[in-house]
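Exercise (ungraded).
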Amino acid sequence: MSDADTLLRLAALNTEYASCIDADRLEEWPGLFLERCLYKITTADNQRRGYAAGIVYADSRAMLIDRVASLREANIYERQTYRHIIGMPGLRSGEADEIVAETPFLVVRTMRDGRMDLFATGVYLDRVRTDADGKLRFAQRLVVCDSSRFDTLLAIPL
Amino acid sequence: MSDADTLLRLAALNTEYASCIDADRLEEWPGLFLERCLYKITTADNQRRGYAAGIVYADSRAMLIDRVASLREANIYERQTYRHIIGMPGLRSGEADEIVAETPFLVVRTMRDGRMDLFATGVYLDRVRTDADGKLRFAQRLVVCDSSRFDTLLAIPL
Amino acid sequence: MSDADTLLRLAALNTEYASCIDADRLEEWPGLFLERCLYKITTADNQRRGYAAGIVYADSRAMLIDRVASLREANIYERQTYRHIIGMPGLRSGEADEIVAETPFLVVRTMRDGRMDLFATGVYLDRVRTDADGKLRFAQRLVVCDSSRFDTLLAIPL
């Protein structure tokens, strides 16, 4: 796979990732991860200091599915919407069977009354592999947020 | 045309689209649509409820040309500038002769005095076809805004 | 080099450019420019009026290296972080040995206390060439900001 192909396949994965969250198709979001995976939301500060703990942490697709179920129960998701704008991935060297990439993102939140605000910016640190069915899936998505000030609503996937 | 080519040609069309609006080359904007086309600005709420009416509606290139002329007469466009940041398109399945895509966007507005604000976020629902001259043009661009609160200035293309 | 390759190589250069600034690897930023180059930050207003002077101006890689050294001494960079979101480049016609492109950008600033704001939006007017080592580098990057209201912090590269 050429670098150009890799870039475009990654970009397509990111577009699908954003669409699952922003169009409220949350149930499809865990399917973009491998069964054994790492999904973590953390801050640039914590990342720099080497803190392993994340604000959100999941190490399997099953945990991501649970998380979506909790969000649906809490009904928290209905109160606002999100819009991800994801930059082009920057490829990093990795092992032969995986793609390592860093990708900047920005999320705008729109409240029910129409107000919009900058909700989060940061970088995705990704490890992506081709799964048994030939699709690219996340082995790791580390969401490193620029801001350390978090809303209680950060239970929402970023 | 491979998916990679399609993605890049769509991205180029979107870049040109944004440039026409943001660099105040509005007169070139209708030329990115087919003669018979659909351009509509609506909200996610209205879209969900199946309301057909849009805040802005045009079903031909001629109507888009009229709209630009009105904007020039009203001189409304001089008072602020816009900056579109458009994500990578997500391809959807469509008929053989057209490309169907969903593409996230964000628009920042800059006022004459230098203040900037988040003006709009949302998703473009597009149907794109190759015209007689070989260029890609919009058969449909549905601009679905996340926020339902609109400024009177929304006469401006998004 | 096909247009598709050109677009993707430019996008990769932009991703690397943003990463140098946003991940605080400022020392690597001058290496993305040719030894003889033009880097200028200006405003859309000044650009329209044909004012040559920029808010920041450098015409060699050495000047960019000096600028980074000054920023480190002033320690100004530690107080906030930036996040660039860069759109896909729009190719323009240029001389045979260079790529001419216009690329929209948005920068969000995050303060130490976690507050985020829209710091700048605008367009990069670029001339890019293949250097002796085969890498693409900027012969020119003109940063044209939409807003004319500047923070004193604009000593930071955009």
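Further reading is listed at the end of the chapter. For now, observe: The first strand of chain A starts at residue 33 and ends at 43. The helical segments of chain A are 3-22, 44-48, 61-74.
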